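Fill in residues.
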């Protein structure tokens, strides 16, 4: 079967039968669609012969619809996590009671929710449905009917294909009946509100985010206010260096929301404190929370009352469990878990390094003091890579007779010479400490000489038939050595952990440890130039299991042909 980048799934089964059908339907759809899957709900839609060409109608926002959306995103995370699933709500609206309402055209019957086809961020190339085909001979007619129906609702590609999923789902009808799902069906409409507010980080938009946003869109009739964490609120986040930029998170939110319910007025604002406009906006009526953030919603209401504003209705949604979580991850679907899964993977493609020989493949490994990069380098060395210690090579440049030795004495004075003719590096450090110009004069002398020694070691490894080299270099980026490596790997760790490690390792005060970190590039600046990011913050037994689980991938890593799909390395320092 052909694969399509973007598809739209039209669900026609009654709401009470859908819960048991969602997983197999999504699994079948994932065999056809590989990137974006839109979901359009029309329970009871008849695509069969004899019913004429069906038209879209408004469906009410019943309580079961909220549960269905939660289950849909939960199942999507489990069975087709690679797909960007989006449940569309343009046709979900409470039926007007007034027969003369403009929505009914004065007839008492709800008008078409799609006066013109709705454009989507990604134009569907294929439409799929769970419609129960009674007669296989009707398949071509049903397919045509489905294509016309979908084209009436959404702007699709001219060559829209169609796929009927029902042949793979027929056995489920009996299972649904046995389960007696109809008894649990809740047809009462949800309470809706003019203006709704939510807050969150919304990093790497996932199923739990989408559930929150979709249900908020169900609840909101007019305006939807979204606060997005920024700056101060990100400081304590796990792997904050891998959080997407604020602008990118907002862009993805806007695209998702515009697809889901374009009729709403959306307002997205940055949050620099836990409350934002939720405690001062008098028009807001409802805040959507989870069992985890309910206390935050209660705190919002406390502040509103202090400000003379009425409290908000707290609408609580359930957390989505992550069926694929590991020992080191949360049980719920979360952005922090998604960020942890990026460790050791290729985040950005390496720049063109055609001026470098393919063998050996050179990885530049860097990170701040205490980041555990040397532990990572030793792990890679154990897997067969040649480790090149730039710090050790730095010591060599100060030896009597070396080029840097003479130039340092010329620049900083012969009073640095010890009795054994070596340079007193402690005294040299005092001459450059706190003086950027003098420090630059020193690095301009030493760094180029270290780079030459690194190149010599790489050449030596090539002559010995080695496949991979790892350049362990704290100053890799500052020194501009990225042109001598194929990839840049960066080790990161929270500052408080780095401070503790430096104090324990070097016997220095907290102030000195902090000062040392502040003299180096911050993690975020280093990650911007990284192809691969690693972290050594977790417990040894957990990282040990990770290393064992990825040993096979580690062996692949030694083959330059597989470097871009290399194993994950998360090693405790």
């Amino acid at each position: 079967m052909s694969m399509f980048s973007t598809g739209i799934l039209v669900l026609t089964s009654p709401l009470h039968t859908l819960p048991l059908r969602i997983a197999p339907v999504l699994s079948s759809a994932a065999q056809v669609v590989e990137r974006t899957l839109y979901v359009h709900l029309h329970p009871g839609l008849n695509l069969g012969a004899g019913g004429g060409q069906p038209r879209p109608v408004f469906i009410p926002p019943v309580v079961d619809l909220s549960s269905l959306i939660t289950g849909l995103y939960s199942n999507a995370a489990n069975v087709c996590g690679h797909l960007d699933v989006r449940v569309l709500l343009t046709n979900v609206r409470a039926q007007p009671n007034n027969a003369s309402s403009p929505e009914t055209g004065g007839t008492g019957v709800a008008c078409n929710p799609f006066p013109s086809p709705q454009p989507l961020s990604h134009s569907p190339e294929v439409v799929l449905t769970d419609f129960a085909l009674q007669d296989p001979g009707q398949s071509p007619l049903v397919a045509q009917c489905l294509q016309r129906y979908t084209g009436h609702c959404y702007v699709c590609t001219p060559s829209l294909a169609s796929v009927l999923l029902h042949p793979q789902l027929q056995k489920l009808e009996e299972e649904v009946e046995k389960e007696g799902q109809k008894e649990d069906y809740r047809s009462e409409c949800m309470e809706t509100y003019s203006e709704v507010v939510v807050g969150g980080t919304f990093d790497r938009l996932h199923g739990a985010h989408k559930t929150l946003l979709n249900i908020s869109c169900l609840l909101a009739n007019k305006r939807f206010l979204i606060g997005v964490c920024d700056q101060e609120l990100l400081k304590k986040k796990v792997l904050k260096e891998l959080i997407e930029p604020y602008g990118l998170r907002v862009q993805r939110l806007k695209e998702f929301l515009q697809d889901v319910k374009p009729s709403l007025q959306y307002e997205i604002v940055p949050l620099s404190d836990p409350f934002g406009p939720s405690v001062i906006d008098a028009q807001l009526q409802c805040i959507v929370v989870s069992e985890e953030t309910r206390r935050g919603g209660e705190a919002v209401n406390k502040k509103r009352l202090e400000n003379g504003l009425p409290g908000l209705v707290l609408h609580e949604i359930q957390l989505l469990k992550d069926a694929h979580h590991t020992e080191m991850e949360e049980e719920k679907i979360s952005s922090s878990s998604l960020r942890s899964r990026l460790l050791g993977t290729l985040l950005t493609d390496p720049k063109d390094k055609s001026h470098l020989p393919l063998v050996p493949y050179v990885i530049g490994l860097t990170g701040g003091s205490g980041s555990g990069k040397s532990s990572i380098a030793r792990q890679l060395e154990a897997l067969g890579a040649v480790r090149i210690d730039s710090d050790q090579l730095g010591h060599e440049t100060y030896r009597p007779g070396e080029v840097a030795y003479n130039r340092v004495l010329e620049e900083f004075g012969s009073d640095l010479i010890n009795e054994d003719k070596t340079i007193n590096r402690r005294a040299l450090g005092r001459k450059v400490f706190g003086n950027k110009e003098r420090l630059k004069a020193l690095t301009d002398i030493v760094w180029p000489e270290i780079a030459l020694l690194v190149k010599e070691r790489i050449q030596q490894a090539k002559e010995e038939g080695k496949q991979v080299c790892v350049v362990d270099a704290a100053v890799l980026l500052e020194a501009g050595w990225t042109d001598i490596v194929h990839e840049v790997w960066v080790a990161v760790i929270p500052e408080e952990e780095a401070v503790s490690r430096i104090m324990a390792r070097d016997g220095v005060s907290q102030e000195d440890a902090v000062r040392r970190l502040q003299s180096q590039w911050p993690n975020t600046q280093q990650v911007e130039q990284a192809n691969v990011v690693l972290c050594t913050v977790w417990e040894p037994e957990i990282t040990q299991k990770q290393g064992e689980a990825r040993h096979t991938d580690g062996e692949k890593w030694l083959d330059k042909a597989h470097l871009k799909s290399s194993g994950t390395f998360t090693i405790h320092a």
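Confidence is low (pLDDT under 50) at residues 98-109, 540-573.
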